[in-house]
Task: structure prediction
Amino acid sequence: MEKMILNGKLVAQTEIKVDFEDRGYQFGDGIYEVIRVYNGQLFTAEEHLKRLMDSAKHIFLSVPYSASEINEQLQELVKANSLESGIIYLQITRGVSPRNHAFPNPSVDCMYIAKTKAVPRSTANADTGVNAITTEDIRWLRCDIKSLNLLGNILAKQKAAEAGCFEAIQHRDGTVTEGSSSNVSIVSGGKIITHPANNLILNGISRQVMLHLCASNDIPVEEREFTVDELMNAEEVFLTGTTIEVLPIIKIDGTVIGDGQPGQITQKLQELFSNEVERQCGVRN
Ligand code: PMP
Result:
């Protein structure tokens, strides 16, 4: 029987019911994280849980557990479900209260659930690269918060799906921000360029791993805004994200990027990323 976490306790998945007045259900009033598990070990869990706590702080949500308590609970969950390779989805909402935009007063207990899902570490897309479209970024101005409100991201991803593409690369007035569920980087003049970690993007944990790997391997990086024009004319384009790791983009809006193959620097980063997974979790595909 598949286990989940409900408010800090391991329970059978069938025991979890959502109240229609849960604020996550009615307003998307909550936050979430997705953490990768390799070889039964959580990858970069501390970084994910720090971001979760930061998101909570930004929306004035008090979480009744510390990051290290949640970390221990998640490790128990992984063990209970014998998860080898996959993800943990975790979400915390502001709890159940009669519908009213303002926070419940007095406050109510938050609703915290976590679930595992087995996902094999697939290399098919990583080897060939994928296609993307560009689209206007219509989201709010606090994209640094990993909020349950994902309508802007969903509409962008659906547009990509309808175009037969893997990802939608969003831009604000011609400045590239990020993918609908990933960060975007380009290689231009042999240098990696990626949007600065500010309110307009989610500071991806994989993006942070990538930046550390670049720093320790003398790969030049510039964290600065870049335009759709620079994107289309880049030598290489790649995405980073928890489930996709480092994923090459070979075509955008039907235009071939570089020579239409995963680029050299992207491939180097994929190798470095795999080494890092092996270092932290002791596994290699
Ligand atoms: N940006 C957005 C909008 C995302 O949803 C995600 C998560 N999939 C990312 C970036 C990448 O973040 P991470 O590397 O932490 O998965």
